[in-house]
Backbone:
């Protein structure tokens, strides 16, 4: 939409009528997607207001994108254009917590961290830990953003009983269990709320860490850990590459999270540490890199998903294609990691590297997609669809 200000005024007045005078406005410089400023921002507080907002958008031919905290708004394939950002900030809150049933209805705009704090007061949690620190429930579910706990509990979408949404035409709907993603992948509108399954908070947590230097060493240690049948909650790896002043490979770290009863956690952790090597250490705090993304805005993030047995081969193949070691971090226990390529490589070289990697992965039934990249690269390479980021 490229209407002049007088033509835009009726749309803005209509959005104000729907959302309230303080909750609809012309977009500002911060209200941008892929570097392009939107035209309007609306912040509806009810399902009815979401319905009316989207029906207005359809009537006026506005391109719409939802926004929670905005932590992943530039990830994936850039949209062709955005006229209206629908901010879900007022669709927040713990709407219906049923502790005895281990379920809760949660507004889509609720920050995940705020939800966890509220649930912890009742000794419960939603077993998710997205790396986006400001992630909302809706934003997390829209792209199925997973953290270390996915190893044991599955993806966030697998912990949803039902979602409520308003589709792109302004029609409300609900969706329940379907292929582990409760229909979320097929929702093209705005998530309003989710009914989620909860877990009791563990009494104790221990991280067992061991230094690693190569993808093959990581593979061997993961196999040893899984054979011990200790039911780890997460198995993560952080494998950096040499710095500019060093030719030696700095040690990476494999970290295993064990959770459970206070009486047994120490013995389980000590047993694992003894099994994986004399350099292993046990701590009641996570490594500094745990649950954090390894890339910055000037870098290209590539998500690799493949069987655990083939993960090391995929990482070696990527390093060969890139002409040197590539840093990786992620779930070694689930066969999903994020690899980081320099943005200085440029779009053509990035595409060539990914094409080589995909040839290696196709025989192993694996996938590699670019989830985030600098703007000039993102516009000139094949990015992941937003529903395929995780």
Residues:
């Amino acid at each position: 939409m490229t209407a002049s200000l007088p033509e835009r005024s009726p749309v803005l007045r209509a959005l104000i009528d729907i959302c309230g005078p303080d909750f609809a406005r012309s977009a500002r410089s911060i209200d941008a997607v892929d570097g392009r400023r939107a035209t309007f921002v609306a912040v509806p507080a009810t399902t009815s207001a979401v319905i009316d907002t989207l029906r207005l958008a359809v009537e006026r031919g506005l391109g719409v994108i939802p926004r929670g905290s905005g932590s992943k708004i530039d990830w994936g394939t850039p949209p062709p254009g955005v006229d209206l950002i629908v901010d879900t900030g007022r669709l927040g809150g713990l709407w219906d917590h049923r502790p005895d049933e281990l379920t809760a209805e949660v507004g889509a705009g609720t920050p995940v961290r705020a939800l966890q704090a509220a649930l912890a007061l009742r000794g419960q949690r939603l077993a998710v830990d997205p790396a986006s620190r400001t992630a909302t429930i809706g934003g997390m579910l829209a792209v199925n953003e997973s953290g270390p706990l996915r190893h044991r509990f599955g993806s966030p979408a697998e912990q949803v009983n039902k979602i409520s949404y308003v589709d792109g035409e302004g029609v409300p709907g609900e969706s329940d269990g379907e292929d582990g993603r409760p229909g979320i992948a097929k929702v093209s509108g705005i998530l309003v709320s989710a009914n989620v399954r909860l877990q009791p908070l563990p009494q104790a947590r221990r991280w067992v860490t061991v230094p690693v230097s190569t993808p093959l060493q990581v593979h061997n240690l993961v196999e040893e850990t899984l054979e011990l049948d200790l039911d780890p909650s997460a198995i993560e790896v952080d494998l950096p590459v040499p710095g500019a002043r060093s030719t030696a490979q700095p040690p990476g770290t494999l970290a295993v999270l064990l959770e459970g009863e206070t009486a047994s956690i120490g013995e389980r952790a000590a047993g694992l540490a003894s099994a994986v090597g004399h350099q292993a250490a046990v701590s009641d705090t996570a490594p500094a890199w745990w649950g954090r993304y390894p890339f910055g805005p000037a870098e290209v993030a590539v998500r690799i998903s493949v069987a655990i047995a083939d993960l090391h081969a995929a990482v070696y193949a990527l390093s060969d294609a890139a002409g040197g070691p590539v840093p990786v971090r992620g779930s070694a226990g689930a066969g999903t990691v994020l690899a980081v390529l320099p943005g200085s490589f440029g779009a053509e070289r990035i595409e060539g590297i990914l094409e080589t990697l995909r040839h290696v992965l196709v025989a192993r039934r694996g996938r590699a997609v670019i989830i985030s990249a600098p703007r000039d690269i993102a516009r000139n390479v094949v990015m992941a669809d937003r529903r395929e980021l995780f």
